[in-house]
Amino acid sequence: MSESPAAASPYEVLGVTPSATDEELRRAYRRKLRQSHPDVGGSAASFHAVQLAWERIGSPASRAAYDGARYPGATDAGGAGRAAGPATARSASSGVKARMYGHPGGHSRQRYLALLREWAGRGTTIDDPYASDLIRSAPREIRHRLAKALAEEATAQLIAGLGIGYTAWHDVATRDDVEKIDHVVLGPAGLFAILSEDWGAPVELRRGELVGDALEPGEEPLADFAAAARILAKSLRVRFTALIVVAPDEAVTEPFSLPSRGRRAMVVVIPRSRLVGVLRDGIAGMERGSFEKVFELRSTLQNGIRFVED
């Protein structure tokens, strides 16, 4: 079971509320175990999820530990409301890092906090917006916003370690009515637009679009991403080498791609552990950039990119 804030909690897997009694929890577990068993039409994945949920909250001790835990990484990470701006990352211990501009995850964290306050109700005081019990009780849409912020921050950390030959812009604005681009990365292998995501469950490619249990019917993340990248590329008068969707390793076990078509660049969906390799070496079928183009494009991007407002 994923630790992502967007993932179904053990209570949701068992179909009970966090206030359920121990006896209600036990009955729900037995019922879900019967319903999800592969011998009666269930799936191995759902059967395993039920067993894992019971391991998490089945005993009073494990339930207390789960209820009292805090989500790893769910902290303000240096001030989510900070305005986007240049911030070349340097570290005395690890040498010069990639040039970084903007505030990765900042907009998604602000959206999370705004949605959380709206859901809690006007006048309600929220002492800790990252308390696990509060996050788990929030609707999936709100939890997904926090998961996305954490995903963007994790991607930015990997990009920062690529070295001085790379430049990255985070939370890049496209158009008022179109979603932002999470990251734009320029390096020797090319120019990439990156979408960092965590839906809390595995996704797969079907008929040119991502599908999964955590995606709403009609949701088209690849189409929306491609449309935003197309708008940005046109406004900057640049061409992306590829569009990259980065998801947690447990959500995408193996990379898959859509070839370029018309004005749409190649789309690659990869687990997070593969991102550094793709940005450094490219991927099969991907047109590689040139060292000279990096210098030509950097000033164009620096002068033309605008950041989303929190």
General shape: globular
Order of helices and strands: HHHHEEEHHHEEEEEHEEEHH
Strand order of the largest sheet: 3-4-5-6-9-11-10
Q: How much beta, percentage-wise? A: 15-25%
Q: Please count the helical segments.
A: 10
E-strand count: 11
Structural class label: alpha/beta
Question: How much helix, percentage-wise, in residues?
Answer: 25-40%
- How many structural domains? 2
Rg calc: 21 Å
Distance between the termini: 32 Å
Mean pLDDT: 86
Q: Sheet with the most strands?
A: 7 strands, mixed
Which runs of at least 5 residues are low in confidence (pLDDT < 50)?
76-94
Question: Can you walk me through this structure?
Answer:
It comes from Cryobacterium arcticum. InterPro entries: DjlA_DnaK_co-chaperone, DnaJ_domain, J_dom_sf, NERD. Residues 9-70 form the J domain. The protein has 310 residues and is of the alpha/beta class. The protein has 2 domains: 10-68, DnaJ domain (Helix Hairpins); 90-304, no CATH class. The protein is 39% helix and 15% strand. It is built from 10 helices and 11 strands. The protein has helices spanning 10-14, 22-36, 44-57, 60-68, 106-120, 132-137, 140-160, 221-236, 275-281, 291-304, and strands spanning 90-91, 95-96, 99-101, 167-172, 181-187, 190-196, 204-206, 209-211, 242-247, 256-258, 266-271. The chain has a 7-stranded mixed β-sheet, sandwiched between helices. It has a two-stranded antiparallel ribbon with strand order 1-2. Strand 1 and strand 2 (95-96) form a beta hairpin. The longest helix is centred in the middle third of the chain and has 21 residues, at 140-160. Mean pLDDT is 86; it is low at 76-94.
